[in-house]
Design goal:
alpha+beta, about 220 residues, about 10% helix, 9-stranded antiparallel β-sheet
């Protein structure tokens, strides 16, 4: 008999570690989004690590800005950014305060509240696609910039909360180059910092960076 996922909130010291330790350890953990219509729970199946000043792919590589300020704050908080003028993506801050590292939540399996997620992801062909990719994940959970800075480690009332879940055994964790990252940050030999659950159907496909063409 398989034990049910642990509903205990992850402690802050879970996130107060090097980002490359935290990222693979997040696989199998449960993220709960509280909404006025009820909760949506997601089992994480794919993440990417970003190591601040040591990482040219990180939003914090060149220092603190208004946009990335949450990354420099306490671990266990949510960093949400808006990209391409249309999508939100969600990260969890790691390491000691002031260090600015974080984990991008790339994909997961909706394990509770799928009917609520379907309302937001009407283009999904099936439930495996509801949160298959970082923008889809944020859309399915109703995450936007209003949730930037949310504390995901509290056991009290909060719109986002990380639970212990069911950690994935290390022999089921795979790693490789990050998706859509340009330059050195996208070099899988240097930064094989995308982690996913082997053979899980909710994991998004890898795509190399493609430069955006300017409109004439």
């Amino acid at each position: 008999m398989i034990a049910p996922p642990d509903r205990t909130p992850l402690p802050r010291d879970f996130f107060d570690r090097p980002v490359l330790d935290v990222a693979p350890d997040l696989l199998g953990r449960t993220l709960v989004r509280a909404t006025s219509d009820g909760p949506i729970a997601l089992r994480l199946t794919e993440v990417e690590a970003y190591d601040g000043p040591n990482d040219p792919g990180s939003h914090a590589y060149r220092g603190r800005t208004v946009r990335n300020a949450v990354m420099f704050g306490p671990p266990g908080h949510v960093y949400v950014y808006f990209t391409y003028g249309m999508w939100h993506c969600m990260n969890l801050v790691c390491g000691p305060e002031g260090r600015a590292s974080g984990v991008l939540l790339r994909a997961g399996e909706i394990v509770e509240g799928a009917e609520l997620a379907r309302r937001r992801r009407v283009s999904a062909r099936n439930d495996k696609e509801l949160a298959k990719g970082p923008a889809r994940l944020a859309t399915a959970l109703g995450v936007d910039r209003t949730l930037d800075g949310t504390d995901a480690c509290t056991s009290g009332e909060t719109p986002l909360r990380m639970l212990t879940g069911a950690p994935v055994p290390r022999d089921q964790v795979r790693s490789g180059p990050r998706t859509g990252v340009a330059g050195e940050g996208g070099n899988g030999d240097v930064h094989p910092w995308r982690f996913w659950v082997a053979d899980d159907p909710t994991v998004s496909p890898y795509r190399a960076h493609v430069p955006r063409r300017r409109r004439s």
